[in-house]
C-alpha cells in the first residue's frame, strides 16, 4: 500500500464524507486502448440521444439510486439504449473509466446479461428488468488493510488523484458464448449509515470468440430483485463499533468460471 493511499484512507474515515457523485464515463478495450465514449449527463442530451456511436445506456444524472428495489437499478435512469456495441473478444479486459470517484467504501460489481441476436432486436429491444444477469467481477474491502471503516476498499484503491482517470478493468470470461450482451457496472457506496447509494451504468457489447459457455441458471439474478433492502450489508453503519469488528457480507454470487 502506498503512503498516499494510507493517508487518503485516514482522511476518508470521517463518517460523512463529501456528497459529490459521479458515474462511468468511458470504456476501453485492448492495448493500446480503444476508447468508447459513454453518455455524459453534463452535456447536451439532444446531441447524444440515439447517436449512431452511443454504446452506453443513458443516465441522466450523476445522483445515486437509493433503493435496492428501484425500477431503474438495472441500468440507471432513464436507461434508454443507443444503437452501438463495443466489440470485445472473450478473454479480453473491458475497462470502465471514471474521471473522478470520491466515495471510499462499499463493494463494486460487474455483471453481464445476454441479449437476443441482432435480427431479434439485439440489446436495444430488451427490457433490462427481465434480463438474466450474472456477475463476472466483484471487489470489496481489500483483505489485510484493516476493518470496514479504516481498511481500504477497492472503491478507494482504484482512485487516482493525479488527474488521470480511475480505471476499473474486468475480464470478459474467456469461454463466454459469442453474442450480444449488456454489461452492468455497479458501485455501491455505503459511507452514510443505513442509506446505500447505487451507481449502475450499462453498455452494449458484441462479444466474439470460440466460446459456448453461459452460467447455469442458478447464477442469474434480476434487477431489481438481486438485493434485499433489509440485507444487513445494505442497512449498515460501518462506523459503528460493532461494524468496525464484523461485517455481514452481502450474499455473494459465484464468479462465472469455465469448465
Ligand atoms: C469519454 O466520454 C465523454 C462523455 O462521457 C466524452 O466527452 C469523451 O470524449 C470520452 N473520451 C474519449 C477519449 O473517448
Ligand atoms: C442542444 O443541441 C441542440 C442540437 O445541436 C441545439 O439545437 C440546442 O440548442 C442545444 N441545447 C443547449 C441547451 O445547448
Ligand atoms: C485485466 O483485469 C484483471 C481483473 O480486473 C486484472 O487483474 C488484470 O491486471 C487486467 N489485465 C490487464 C492487461 O489490464
Ligand atoms: C459483432 O461482431 C461481428 C464480428 O466482428 C460482426 O460480424 C457483427 O456485425 C457485429 N455485430 C454487431 C451488432 O455489432
Ligand atoms: Cu455521491
What this model shows, in words?
It is found in: Secreted. Keywords: Carbohydrate metabolism, Cellulose degradation, Copper, Disulfide bond, Metal-binding, Monooxygenase, Oxidoreductase, Polysaccharide degradation, Secreted, Signal. Belongs to the polysaccharide monooxygenase AA9 family. Its EC number is 1.14.99.56. Its cofactor is Cu(2+). There is one protein chain. The N terminus and C terminus are likely disordered. The radius of gyration is 18 Å and the shape is globular. The relative contact order is 0.22. The chain is built from three helices and nine strands; from the N terminus they run αββββββαβββα. It has 259 residues and is mostly beta strands. A hairpin with a 4-residue loop joins β1 and β2. The strands form two sheets. It has a five-stranded mixed beta sheet with strand order 3-9-8-5-6, with no helix packed on it. Helices cover 7% and strands 24% of the residues. The chain has one domain: Coagulation Factor XIII, Chain A, domain 1 (Distorted Sandwich). The longest helix has 9 residues. It binds 2-acetamido-2-deoxy-beta-D-glucopyranose (4 copies) and copper (II) ion. One 2-acetamido-2-deoxy-beta-D-glucopyranose (NAG) binds next to β9.
Key traits:
7% helix, 259 residues, binds 2-acetamido-2-deoxy-beta-D-glucopyranose, Coagulation Factor XIII, Chain A, domain 1, 9 strands, globular, AA9, copper, mainly beta, single chain, metal-binding, five-stranded mixed beta sheet
Amino acid at each position: 500500500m502506498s503512503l498516499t493511499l494510507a493517508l487518503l484512507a485516514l482522511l476518508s474515515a470521517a463518517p460523512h464524507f463529501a456528497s459529490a457523485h459521479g458515474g462511468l464515463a468511458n470504456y476501453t478495450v485492448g492495448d493500446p486502448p480503444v476508447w468508447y465514449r459513454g453518455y455524459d449527463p453534463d452535456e447536451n442530451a439532444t446531441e447524444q440521444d440515439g447517436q449512431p456511436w452511443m454504446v452506453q445506456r443513458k443516465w441522466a444524472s450523476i445522483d445515486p439510486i437509493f433503493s435496492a428495489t428501484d425500477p431503474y437499478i438495472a441500468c440507471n435512469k432513464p436507461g434508454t439504449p443507443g444503437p452501438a456495441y463495443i466489440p470485445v473478444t472473450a478473454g479480453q479486459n473491458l475497462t470502465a473509466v471514471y474521471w473522478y470517484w470520491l466515495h471510499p467504501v462499499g463493494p463494486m460489481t460487474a455483471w453481464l446479461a445476454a441479449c437476443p441476436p441482432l435480427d431479434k432486436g439485439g440489446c436495444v429491444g430488451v427490457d433490462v428488468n427481465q434480463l438474466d444477469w450474472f456477475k463476472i467481477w466483484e471487489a470489496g474491502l481489500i483483505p489485510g488493510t484493516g476493518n470496514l471503516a479504516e481498511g481500504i476498499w477497492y472503491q478507494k484503491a482504484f482512485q487516482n488523484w493525479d488527474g488521470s482517470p480511475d480505471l476499473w478493468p474486468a475480464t470478459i470470461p474467456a469461454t463466454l458464448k459469442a453474442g450480444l450482451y449488456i454489461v452492468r457496472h455497479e458501485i455501491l457506496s455505503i459511507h452514510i449509515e443505513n442509506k446505500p447509494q447505487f451507481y449502475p451504468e450499462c453498455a452494449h457489447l458484441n462479444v466474439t470468440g470460440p466460446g459456448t459457455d453461459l452460467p447455469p441458471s442458478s447464477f442469474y439474478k434480476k434487477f431489481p430483485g438481486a438485493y434485499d433492502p433489509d440485507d444487513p450489508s445494505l442497512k449498515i453503519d460501518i462506523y459503528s463499533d460493532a461494524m468496525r469488528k464484523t461485517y455481514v457480507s452481502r450474499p455473494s454470487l459465484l464468479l462465472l468460471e469455465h469448465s
